[in-house]
Amino acid sequence: MNPFVLGVDLDGVCGDFTEAFKHVVADELGVPVESLPTNRSWGFDEWGLAPDTLGELLRTAAVKHRMLAKMEPIVGAVESLWRLSDAGVWIRIVTHRLYVNWSHAVVVADTVAWLDRVQIPYRDICFLGAKPDVACDCYIDDAPHNVKALRASGNQVICFGQPYNTDIAQPRMDSWDEVEDYVLHLAANGGHQVQIQLPGFPVHVDRLASVQRPDPS
Ligand SMILES: [Mg+2]
């Protein structure tokens, strides 16, 4: 067996981080949600937050609001990851959520609880401080600095399209349908065994239901 390993980032790729964080910031600062544009830069410049405030709000979002356990999945991510996994692709979750000094216990517990709740399949998971290479055949990430660093060290990286990465070179994809197709072809062309599901078969995303953890709220 020589599985094709796909390194999958969570925030901004599988989970709608901007939308979830927007509600936390609106609540904490007492401002309307509509005043925080979705079309934002990586540093949230459009939200008018000082660097210290941003750091504190990110910590508050994780620890007080338990945002990492609650965010909505990005459209198509769950279904595509099941199809890729069923085709034989090894799903490796690669998250750099430990890059700040949040409670690691909360971050790790809420992350795996979230993966179970939204039914994302994975074989293993890496919690990283920085974002080094973790031996994947291909990565998918949305953070401009991660995409650039991984590509600079010779890795195959799909940039998942977000407003803050429009200047990143191809491959850059806005939908999980595109990602799924691209990864399957990459795996097949690289000599890996992939079994593409026949069209018309439903994707069962409820196979993790028996291991669901309680909602932390
Ligand atoms: Mg990300």
UniProtKB/TrEMBL annotation:
Keywords: Hydrolase
Example of a GO MF term: 5'-nucleotidase activity
Top enzyme category: hydrolase
UniProt cross-references to InterPro entries, sorted A to Z: 5'(3')-deoxyribonucleotidase, HAD-like_sf, HAD_sf
Xref: Gene3D superfamilies: HAD superfamily/HAD-like (3.40.50.1000)
Active site: D9 (nucleophile), D11 (proton donor)
Signal peptide start and end residues: none
Keyword Aminoacyl-tRNA synthetase tagged: no
EC number annotated for this UniProt entry: 3.1.3.-
BP terms from Gene Ontology: deoxyribonucleotide catabolic process
Family of this protein: Belongs to the 5'(3')-deoxyribonucleotidase family.
Name of protein: Putative 5'(3')-deoxyribonucleotidase
The organism of origin for this protein: Candidatus Neomicrothrix parvicella RN1
